[in-house]
Amino acid sequence: MSDDVIFLLAGGFGALFGLWRVLDGALARRSVVRLLSVGGLALVGAVIADGLIALGEGRTFFDHYSDFGILVLLFIVMVLPLWGLFDERILAQVGEFGVAVLGITAAARMADRAGWAPAGALAVASLGIALLLLRGQASDMLRLAAYGWFLLCTVLLAVLEGDNAIALIDDDIVEVSAVPTFAAFAALMWLAFHSVFASKFVLIALTCLRKDGRALAYEFGSRLIVPSTVSPIAGTAAVGAVALLLFSDVAFDWAPDAVLVAAVIFVFPIFEATVDRVLTDREVQPA
């Protein structure tokens, strides 16, 4: 099996995993399954088509450049996120710890490119906004600004991660590792959706120029910035652990960057959801 096929399959199904994380809970489960099934069948069909062409050219079935497959993968990663511009159901809700974690993740990735000074400023600003939200008395303007900061960090992270993931398509691939490729495209898909949300947010923020528009914008912010279910102690410990993992990797390069970023993006929400489920179960238990 050629590295191109490994890259396509790992990246394609990584992108579908990222799509599932975006849509899970936002749409009916049947709709999500149908969409993922269509995407998976399109990827497999493209591999088969490229394989048949390779056979016709005298090569083996899995020895090809996956030209059709790359077009399908690019469609999933670059076109599907535009859906988020029109469907408000799949806008992300985020708490104070989510703002902090994503900001720290973007800061860690920026440290590799721009140095420690701008990365430190980004991390400190993210923690400051999270602390203001943690007080529990956040104003409507602060909630709107916090969501805007979350999207700004998302766009920065999407640019940095997109460069690593998409560049592989144009480079001479010597050896492809399936796990980092899967993780990179999973994170890229999630980030691509939220980067599209950012363009919608700009339009929403512009409505603050008028009094009626400010009321609508503040309502938007209050819906999307929700108090975290994680306790302050547990949340602070989780944020500290994330920061330690990311910045120790910047210093010592002990793990693939794509895997770490994907782990942070997907594991922390699962951590919050698990805490929420445990607390809910305790509330419903009889005394």
Main sheet characteristics: none
Overall geometry: globular
Q: State mean pLDDT (0 to 100 scale).
A: 83
**Number of H- or I-type helical stretches:** 10
What's the helix-strand series?
Answer: HHHHHHHHHH
Description:
The protein has helices at 3-23, 29-56, 67-78, 96-114, 116-134, 140-170, 178-206, 211-224, 232-252, 257-284. By secondary structure, the protein is mainly alpha-helical. Helix 4 packs parallel to helix 9 and helix 5 (116-134) packs antiparallel against helix 6 (140-170). It is globular and about 70 Å long. The mean pLDDT is 83.
Write the layout of secondary structure elements.
Layout: H1 3-23, H2 29-56, H3 67-78, H4 96-114, H5 116-134, H6 140-170, H7 178-206, H8 211-224, H9 232-252, H10 257-284
Helix pairs in contact: 1-2, 1-3, 1-7, 2-3, 4-5, 4-6, 4-9, 4-10, 5-6, 6-7, 6-8, 7-10, 9-10
Short description:
This protein is mainly alpha-helical.
Features:
287 residues; 10 helices; globular
